[in-house]
Write a structure and sequence with these properties.
The structure is a single chain. By secondary structure, the chain is an all-alpha fold. It folds into 2 domains: about 1-135; about 135-340, no CATH class. It is built from 11 helices and 2 strands. The protein has a two-stranded antiparallel sheet with strand order 1-2. Strand 1 (about 70-75) and strand 2 (about 75-80) form a beta hairpin. Helix 2 packs antiparallel against helix 3 (about 80-105), helix 4 runs antiparallel to helix 5 (about 135-150) and helix 6 packs across helix 9 (about 255-280). The radius of gyration is 20 Å and the shape is globular.
Amino acid sequence: MNERTHAPHAASWLLLAGALGVPLSLLWDFGWESTVGIDLVWGAPHVMTYLAVAMAAVAAVWMIVRGKSGVVLAGMRAPVGAWVALWGAMAFVVAFVFDRWWQASYGMAAGIWHPPQMAKAVAFFAIACGAWWCVPRWGAGVVVALIGVVSMAQGFANRQHDAFFYKLACGAYPLVLAAAAISGGGRWAATRAALLGMSIHLAAVWVLPLVPGVPETGPIYNMRDHLLPPPFPPLIVLPALAMDWLLAARKDAGWRSAGEVGFAFFAVFAVVQWRFAAFLLSPGADNWFFAGGGKQWPFFLRISDEMRTAFWPGEVLEIKNAAFCVALAAASSRIGIWLGA
């Protein structure tokens, strides 16, 4: 019998809730830091992160204490997801202490992806993957949302005609979507994961602008009176649909299937997202729903009026880069198929 069936039902959902709170709190933190600018250890978004990690840890310990099947470690038996999530919670505590030392030594302006932040990202993904293992129908969506969070700097519409944006998407998303499609999460598992991942980001896009907030530090280049929404999420649900359709009857899929779904992911995503990015920079997207039109910027970002609605210079998505994107998507899909199986 599959070990996931032995996980306490309530604990599994508690773990999923904790994992879900991680990307939601990080998106809130993005809006807070981009609007208010004062990043306190006990700021509201950070407290939500701490609570989400604590919830995941409690759920994992619950499974370990009461578990009667799964993987044995230190004389106790529990589902793999519980062990992975607990490791992620403990890794977050270590990363938090590391981050406090780092900021005390190098200051608050040490950059976005300094070592403590990378350690936190690893911890967050461990918690999300643990939840995915215990609640396979929904956990993959949390992992998809986290991919969007950690790649948010590349997610502004102005960067979406840059080949690097497509390389990043092709290297990350197909792995999770293919694993979801293969692992038995249902007929449209990849599509469901993509929809949940997008929904988490859309919740932040639509709710954060309803919260008042003003910059409390300088310099201020973009005055704000409400929290900044994150960029509108990439439309990965459409390539996910294609992946579900191609992998529907291929539980023994190999490199050939990976090549097909990798090509499908890139082809659908590139065509759809290329045109959608242009729309997001147009006046038609200057509204609450899309939060686009080149109007939503962090208070500290100095940017000319022309560049607000322009595509920023980057790698050209020509044949060589497109072929590399397909190869990345195929390799990512193959790893996902292997993990899902």
